[in-house]
Design the sequence.
């Protein structure tokens, strides 16, 4: 949630709900192909897929990819975001 700017927090849950509805098929496909129980999930680098946080991460990947990348690299290993970015396929790819 650190990639959700303070001025965006009011009403964010509702906007996240709209994002989920707009991308439902894509989210379901990602969960089916890379989520828990899938072959890629057996490689721990895809452990984020299937976690509730994934919704916020992919929404931020679409909305503010530079902010997400900057915040992520301060707190977590980039490889997890890189792998999720590869699976999600955002409009702008920022992985190295």
Sequence:
């Amino acid at each position: 949630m650190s990639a959700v700017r303070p001025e965006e927090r009011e009403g964010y849950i509702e906007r996240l709900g709209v994002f989920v509805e707009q991308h439902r098929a894509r989210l379901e496909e990602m969960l089916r192909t890379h989520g828990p129980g899938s072959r890629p999930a057996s490689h721990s680098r895809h452990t984020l897929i299937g976690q509730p946080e994934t919704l916020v991460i992919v929404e931020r990947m679409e909305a503010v990819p530079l902010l997400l990348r900057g915040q992520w690299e301060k707190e977590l290993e980039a490889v997890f975001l890189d792998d999720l970015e590869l699976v999600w396929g955002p409009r702008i790819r920022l992985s190295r």
